[in-house]
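In the previous chapter we treated chains in isolation. Here, by contrast, the input contains three separate entities that must be folded as one system, with a combined length of 804 residues.
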Amino acid sequence: MEGWGGVAIMVALGVGFGAVNVALSYFAGPRHPTPEKEAAYECGMPPVGDARERQSVKFYLIAMIFLLFDIEVAFLGPWAMALRDLGWPGFIQIALFFAILAVAFIYVWRKGVLDWGPETDPDYVRPPKPGPAVVKRYNYGTGN
Amino acid sequence: MDGSGPVVAFWLLAAVTLVAAGGVLVSRNLLHAVLFLILAFIGVAGHFVLLSAEFLAMAQVIIYVGAISVLLLFAILLTPRAGRDNGETKAFPVGALLAVALAAVFLFVINDTNWKTVSESPALAPEALGEALLTSWVLPFEIASVLLTAALVGSIMLARTAEEEAEDALA
Amino acid sequence: MNGIDTVGPQLSVLGAAGLILVVDALMPQHRRMLPFIALFGLIVSALWTVSWVGRDFAPADITTFDGTFSLDQYSAFFYFVFVGITATVVLASIDWVNREGRGQGEYYALVMTVCSGLMFLSASRDLITIFLSLELSSIPQYILAGWGKDKRSSEAGIKYLLVGAVASSLLLYGMALLYGATGTTLLDGIGAYVASPEAEANRGLLVLAMVLLMAGFGFKMAVVPFQMWVPDVYQGAPTPVAAFLSVGSKGAAFAVVVRVFIVALGADLLSDDWSMIFAILAAVSMTLGNVMAVSQTDIKRMLGYSSIAQAGNFLIGLAAVSGGDERFTLGASGVLLFVAAYAFTNLGAFVAVIAISQRIGSDQIKDYAGMWRRSPVLALGLAFCLVSLTGIPPTVGFWAKLYIFNAGIRADLGWLVIIGVLNSVVSAYYYLGVARQLFTGGDESTERVPTSPSISLSLGAATLGVLVFSIIPMPLMSAARDAAEVLTK
């Protein structure tokens, strides 16, 4: 348990700093509330509709992928600490661990789960780079 | 491990964890339940620190407090039309009664047991953990990675939209 | 790296799963190959296990990976069962997956992952490995149960997931208490502690842990009172998946329960308690499963309830392990024999149901009337499997029942055997009722029900297995006995 005193002091400082500032502005700050100031967003457009609209499930998939690779990275820690004792056998084992997850990564990548935007459209073709040969002149309809 | 510090810390953490866990049960708003759950996770991480299992504490914070709570919050975010409140259940009184009875049995047994106490500090340092994971427990360790892969494939399969599937089937 | 040979069968299954995913993602034009990659992996796995046959397993093999895993006749027996089950399921799924069109790679990869999990489960000798293997076999099954996009399938997936999560948490709690009491997660270490005099003082804790383990495994074995998910999941899940669940998950649960309870909790201190609890669970499961199955009109639900009753039969073997001179062996080998016999018989019945329901688009038993005229092969195969499930001589189901009832009588469980026999009579009513429907009635349609080669092969393999072991059951019995003796050595 040694060495946690510093952590405790840091936690206290962190919590204290936030709490003191909130408390100070609560007690010492001037308050003249108006309906505009009470709004969730003081500046910008007035909110329209319900905030709880339907979101893409892609967010969830990204979070899921993040979670899995997060766990993977967390396993790296203990291996790195014991690196020298474990030697090559340990390296092979962790490499196998990563190889298995690499299969997952290939799968995720090729199935387009990481694609985010118009590229997922099969008909979408990236426009060719503009060069002298493909420059077209448009007539923007002034009539002559 | 001497002095009253760890004892005080234990009871404080136990109180925080239990109150937060109770909060998950009683809060009517799902979002509040998730926030309570995060607090309970943090309490458990504190217990790991008390047991000198720093790596587990770190993993608990990174994986549970970090990633899993985000996943839970996303799940609430992504279900717009479902109710966001904990449902009422008719089985509540029966469930509560059973829970109390079960808790009584557990408390009795825990009190009755002659627990094995470990005198020396257990080998929970990250380097010892790494060695254990990659020597004795290498099989479960590799099984875990297969499990993660299978879970990933499955969750993607379940969550994909019909259009994406049709596109993939044509490919 | 002596471990590679030890886990070879699982590695070849998992290697095939990985290859399937990569081929599916990188070379989608070769998707038709996927089931054959799966079958190839399963064949390699079976051959690898065959290479061990006749080998005298040294103690070093039995405790590979620092005692967390074992290579013995017991696990080899189950490897054959699970590889056979998975190969039959893969064959029976080809039509359905092609018609469904989506997620072909994922489907086969997940089925193979489940297979490897079941194999790991039957060979684990350590609580952590057991838990991870159990999850490895369960999580893909939750996903497979919810594979269809219809409401019923989603319900099946969610229900199975929630019930499975509760079961896993009970199991984990039990394991944690066991670890707390004994200070080890190795089954051998726990067994040594339970047999030692100091365990007396902690009997309360050990009993509590034992009950939690029973509850956790009970969900997977699908015995009463942990059976409520079975009919809904079997009915809602796609039929090939339901077939897989009904035999794979149940078989592996019994494999691990027999090992855990004999090796870790087998001492006199606990064995009388658990054999009595298992005897009661057996009686209740058989009775409730059969009584509920009688009134079913959906054949998948009927098979679901009947699988609960069959699990009750398996439990007679578990209850019988603590009695008699041949302590453990007779009851345990009875469980093994019954698992193997039930696996192929029930699978055969399910494959026939897959073939029929795909064509007639209904799972209702009344629509099966007159199937004899529409497809004689399917009707005969299904009827034969149902007769074997009933336990009418001279089918393999009969031999298994005879063996396990004999174990029960030797263990002074005469009352349980009487309940078992009475239940067999009840089960005859609904099993043979379906068989009768197949051959009579149903004049309205004489349209033939064709079968595809893959389904025919799958049904043929399952029924051939049932037929061969019906005529010559001795090899299977001696294999089960050799396997069970490993645990009691």
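Chain B touches chain A through 49 residues (CB under 8 Å). Chain B has a mean pLDDT of 81. Compare these points with the single-chain example from earlier in the chapter.
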